[in-house]
Design goal:
Helix content: 40-55%
Strand content: 15-25%
Number of strands: 8
Largest sheet: 4 strands, parallel
Number of helices: 10
């Protein structure tokens, strides 16, 4: 993982997800998050034009680290890197994506939810992984169990993380950061209520600082 990304996550260990088909709204959402103190953004490729939104954020904002999430194939990984993605997140562990990212020096956070998947990621050379879906995969107790065995691994729990349980996850030394879509509510994005998004980001930063 790059020093810049590591330092950003140490200061504000929360990665908001943006899943927006409209590029201008994606840019405004990213800026609202940055105004609240969150400058590492994951744009999830769950819609046809999501990658265009990521490209617009990269082109029209400054000071953000922008990655691509929900990357399912090696071709997608290569495409988002060509578009400027600074890290890649996948819902599961795919060896060829992992090896590509390791070869290219691109931070990669594959989804894991079992000991076998974490061990496979470790064997491939990864030391940071996504823990997904966090709430369904055992939450904090499961992460504590993993951390006792995989002592070098760090986790980014995503899926079911919210302001209500963020501090519990971040209290674990093995948690690198938490990802979540609660910071970008669909109704707030659709209505242009970017002040709400900034407030949610500010709240997350405050919770993170108290937990750490």
């Amino acid at each position: 993982m790059s020093a810049d990304l590591s330092n950003r996550l140490a200061g504000a260990p929360v990665v908001p997800l943006i899943g927006e088909n409209d590029a201008p709204r994606a840019v405004k959402t990213a800026q609202a998050l940055a105004d609240g103190g969150l400058t590492v953004i994951e744009v999830v490729l769950r819609s046809a034009d999501a990658q265009r939104g990521m490209e617009a954020i990269l082109a029209e904002t400054e000071g953000l680290i922008v990655g691509a999430g929900t990357v399912l194939t090696l071709d997608q990984a290569k495409s988002v890197v060509a578009s400027g993605a600074q890290f890649i997140v996948s819902p599961g562990l795919v060896d060829e994506i992992a090896l590509y990212c390791l070869d290219e020096g691109i931070p990669f956070f594959p989804g894991t939810m079992t000991a076998g998947e974490v061990q496979r990621a470790y064997a491939l050379g990864l030391r940071e992984v996504k823990f997904f879906p966090a709430s369904l995969a055992g939450g904090v107790p499961m992460l504590k169990a993993f951390s006792s065995v995989f002592r070098e691994m760090r986790f980014m729990p995503t899926g079911g993380v919210s302001a209500a349980n963020l501090s519990e996850f971040l209290a674990l030394p093995s948690v690198l950061a938490c990802g979540g879509s609660w910071l970008t509510p669909k109704d707030a994005v659709a209505s242009g209520d970017y002040a709400q998004i900034t407030n949610l980001a500010s709240e997350a930063v405050a919770i993170a600082r108290a937990a750490r």
